[in-house]
Design a protein that fits this description.
By secondary structure, the protein is α+β, with helices and mostly antiparallel strands. 19% of the residues lie in helices and 26% in strands. The strands form 4 sheets. A 5-stranded antiparallel sheet has the order 10-9-8-7-11, with helices on one face. A two-stranded antiparallel sheet has the order 1-4. Strands 2-3 form a two-stranded antiparallel sheet.
Amino acid sequence: MRLTPRGDATQRLVSVTTAIRPEPVGQSPCTDLHGNTVLSVWFAGLTDQLDIDVTCEVETLRGNPFDFLPDPERSRLPVVPTADEAVLAPCLLPPPAVQPAALALARRMLDGGAVTPRDFAWSLVTWMGTNLTPIVRRESGILSPDMVLARGRGACRDLAVCAMAVCRAVGLPARFVSGYQEGDPMLEERDLHAWFEVWLPGGGWRGYDPTHGLAVADRHVALAVAPEPEGAAPVVGAFRGDGASVALSHDVRLEMF
């Protein structure tokens, strides 16, 4: 389970409690390769239901998403990782299949003058926020970047993966983020949210939200990050039993202070 918010330069985890029913016979918290807190649990016997209830308090710390000075010696794309930045390599891998529309969009950004890492990320996210329509998509899976661009719409996870592909096409390291966003405070029903981060020399990892067309500041709470969406999935696991099947449901409630 990746349901414990991250603690880093952008947010501080004040408290977290996790209740699991039925009670596991064992559990082990650990930190994965990407700095996410992962809680592994295991059970004895069979059950017809699994309930996970996580309550947490998080202090967000970044009021200004542009509070950094770009590295003047690495001011143009592509971002070539140094020997100490080998961890960025998976965040530069292209999609499994060629995405001509995503490549064309990347070229359009460059031709429009967005040749620095910071300008490219900002130009891309504002373009997506203006030209693509966010939708709620309950079915599983993620649309390909070119399918998102052809349809002109996608769920938050689809838009994040699309943006990652465009960034990686120009050598800008990008990774997937799963978490929560403030949303409309007048609505009781909330949901998990997804966005992406890029590595900006001089600024480190910086978040951008193509669903809302903005740079991420103190209205987002990150649960997990990974080079690919699968590595940031909130819950993964296996089950057994005769004729077993599974269906997941969730309920998200946010209080802003």
